[in-house]
């Protein structure tokens, strides 16, 4: 015999998992849409060095992509792997039209010889410009070279060279400080 107040028990059992599944789906859609909106606001300048151990001394990583359509997607989907030991720089090659629209972007690890031809070169045949830049340092190739002032080889200074860090202030050792405080007490 069926209770009048409870309705159809089979319908209630079927509706409960369906409602739960619908609620879970709505929450997942909300989370995914929120993640997508936040992905457009990635700050590539605030990328922290990786926590995994370095494969060799002075190793580094670069943003890497091959013929990407725009800088955002190149940086967003760049492979996260260490540069080979025979490289020292991050290279960016930017092809764009005379109207400034990017046609291809390539970023990779590079040797010194690959960075000798930095600068911008305009092709009159195709009306395209190619700008190449190299930089030294962990994931330093965030921006695109677009003219002669930023299509350069950016090298960091080695410690101990001219213009290097200021000399350290030498503090007296602990025994000297102990004697000075004893003398002040007398």
TrEMBL record:
Keywords from the UniProt entry: Cell membrane, Disulfide bond, Glycoprotein, GPI-anchor, Lipoprotein, Membrane, Signal, Transmembrane, Transmembrane helix
Any one GO cellular component localisation term in the record: plasma membrane
Listed SUPFAM superfamilies: Snake toxin-like
Name of the protein: LY6/PLAUR domain containing 6B
UniProt membrane topology term: Lipid-anchor; GPI-anchor
MF term (GO), any: acetylcholine receptor regulator activity
Bilayer-spanning residue ranges: 20-39
């Amino acid at each position: 015999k069926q209770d009048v107040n409870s309705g159809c028990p089979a319908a209630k059992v079927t509706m409960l998992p369906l409602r739960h599944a619908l609620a879970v789906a709505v929450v997942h859609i909300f989370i995914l849409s929120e993640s997508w909106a936040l992905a457009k606001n990635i700050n590539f300048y605030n990328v922290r060095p990786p926590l995994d151990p370095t494969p060799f001394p002075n190793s580094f990583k670069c943003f890497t992509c091959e013929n990407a359509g725009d800088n955002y997607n190149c940086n967003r989907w760049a492979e996260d792997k260490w540069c080979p030991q025979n490289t020292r720089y991050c290279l960016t090659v930017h092809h764009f039209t005379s109207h400034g629209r990017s046609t291809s972007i390539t970023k990779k690890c590079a040797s010194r010889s690959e960075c000798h031809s930095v600068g911008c070169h305009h092709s009159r045949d195709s009306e395209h410009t190619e700008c190449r830049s190299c930089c030294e340092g962990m994931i330093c190739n965030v921006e695109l070279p677009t003219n002669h002032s930023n299509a350069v080889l950016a090298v960091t200074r080695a410690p101990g060279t001219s213009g290097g860090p200021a000399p350290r202030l030498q503090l007296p050792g602990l025994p000297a400080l102990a004697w000075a405080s004893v003398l002040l007490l007398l």
